Amino acid sequence: MAKNIQRIDLKTVNDEPVFRIGLFEGQDFIDFRVEGKFNVENENGEVLIKNVESDLKWRIKIKESRPGKEHYFLILYEALDEKKVLEKLESAREYDPNVQIRTIGGDIYLNGKKLTNNTKYLLVSGDYTSEIEAKRDAMRFQPRFSARVEKETLKQARGELEVFDAEYEYSAETDNVVRIVPHDYKTKVHLYNIRSFDEILGKELHRDHFYNGTIEFRFDNKGSLMAISELPLETYLKRVVYSEIGTGLPLEFSKSLAIVTRSEAMARVGHKHLGDPYDMCNWGHCLRYYGDDFQDDNIEKAVEETRGQVISTGERITDTYFNLICGGHTEDALGVWEIDAEPVFYGKYDYKETPEEFKDLRDESTVEKWIQARPDAWCNLRGREVPQALEKYKKYFRWEVNYSRRELEEIIRKKTGEDIGILFDIIPIHRGSSGRLKEVELMGSLKNYRLIGELNIREVLAYDYLESSCFIVEKEMDDTGTPISFTFVGAGQGHGVGMCKTGGAVMALEGYKMEDILAHYFENYQLRSIYNDK
User: Fold this and answer.
1) What does DSSP assign to residue 293?
2) Which of 102, 140, 319, 366 is most buried (most C-beta within 10 Å)?
């Protein structure tokens, strides 16, 4: 074994790998109820309260806390091959002589058997106290690198917690962590009135959450309460498949999504949330994992019937990307990220055949026709009768959003820290195979400014994010030829790489099998099981 490759032995329950999912942070206290028998344990697994059966609400609250420490850094490039990162190192150090190579992941073992090697090599730079500071500094690496921001926890928060029921018949105090451990993983834990903040609506929201398996309460980095869901992989995936697309969809599609999400979860062990006490978060940064109370027989069957199956490239489990709705054409992984992509990720037309008129979406005139049209595609839902879960995605196949010039100038200034003066134009420089923009130039009265990277373009040109970077720009001009407003007319939602969830669901509705769906979105894919490999 190479000296820079670590061995990661997965924790298991009944021979399945166990995953820990960060649910939420920033709570002052948390009320909960368990629908079956459970134990209350401390950080070391020692039982504080045993064999509880209670219909009462319980509360976890802070007695005392000390915040942790975190920082932000930039990832300039990532690769599965160390040589490729070394090739980029010299040019990266022209921007910052302190750029380093960092290794994450390793040899992944399940029940003593090696499953895969997911070692990844990163080019990293910087040490920032805030995300906005890191994002602004990332601009200095352009145009050579489209850097992305990553957070790392350096020191865990500590403190004391108290847990008790509504009648104070049961209570316990302990340091740092309280674990609610049901005797059966099917047991539901109901978390009440969890607070969150909606950035788009600009208001505080409160809602209940439901989860299966162990729930762990501990301190987030600011010293408030957070929660973690801990459960076996296959149980985890049932809620992931629901969260990623909803209910009422065909079995064959649910099976394909179960395989894709299982592959992604296994391929990313040790890659996410560095320094955090959990493996994955519960939103699109990792895999969605919502706390809704749901029931769907096809999802249950899909996970059970594909148990353990993952997509692999040779001996490596593939990090299988997917997106909500590609807009009619998927994207090459290299068209989106600074990575060396697995060979299964090539952009392709999302239908039976590619129309001759849309064979080159890197061409500006072709892209303009493409976006203004509504061509046949699996993910074009117009005129289709589809389950309720898909109805809300119709608006993303083609979309538009309008900003006044002054609005957009202010957004750009806030997002980049740059004052470009009057925004005269947004010039497309480079597109990927799906027509998604990889580079644009902002033409300003004070300076021109280049945006590089699909996500960066989407973020800088909107209050939140544009739906995708596959767009054209329409301008309304005043009598002097100065823009009054800019309208973005676009296709699809998200990065467009890998499986289009909407397209895959429609394929299944039209009678295609799981194997057909996977073959359509992943070139020369291979299936294997993580449970019975020799």
Assistant:
1) -
2) 319
Cα distances (Å, whole numbers) of residue 246 to 80, 327, 459? 33, 19, 26
Specify whether the CB–CB gap between 397 and 489 falls below 8 A: no
Residue with tokens 């301190």: 219
- What are the CA-CA distances from residue 269 to residues 101, 109, 117, 121 (Å)? 19, 11, 10, 14
Position 246 scores a pLDDT of: 93
The stretches of 358-465 forming alpha helices (DSSP H) are 364-372, 388-391, 405-416, 454-460
**What separation in angstroms does the CA of 255 have from each of 185, 322, 496, 505?**
22, 14, 20, 11
pLDDT top residue among 337 and 242:
242
Give the whole-angstrom CA distance, residue 374 versus residue 371. 7
Which region among 189-193, 312-316, 412-416 has the lowest average model confidence (pLDDT)? 312-316
Domains of the chain as residue ranges with CATH: 29-62+156-223 (no CATH), 69-154 (3.30.70.1070), 396-491 (no CATH)
Give the per-residue pLDDT at 487: 98
CA distances 453 to 135, 337, 347, Å, are: 13, 7, 17
Distance of CA 496 to the CA centre of its chain: 13
What are the tokens at 346? 């090539």
Residue 283 to residue 285: CA distance in whole angstroms: 6
Give residue-wise pLDDT tens across range 39-78. Answer: 999 999 999 999 999 999 999 999 999 999 999 999 999 9
- Ramachandran region of residue 435, left (φ > 0), alpha (ψ -120 to 50) or beta? left
Neighbours of 255 (CB within 10 A): 26
Rounded to whole angstroms, the Cα distance separating 318 from 309 reads 12
pLDDT at residue 199, rounded to an integer: 64
DSSP characters over 216-235: EEEE-TTSSEEEEEEEEHHH
Tokens found for residue 327: 């807009």
Secondary structure (DSSP) of 65-128: EE--EEEEEEEEEEESSHHHHHHHHHHHHTT-TT-EEEEE-EEEEETTEEEEE--EEEEEEEEE
Cα(8)–Cα(444) distance, rounded to whole angstroms?
51
Tokens representing 409? 């100038």
- Is the distance from CB of 459 to CB of 465 less than 8 angstroms? yes
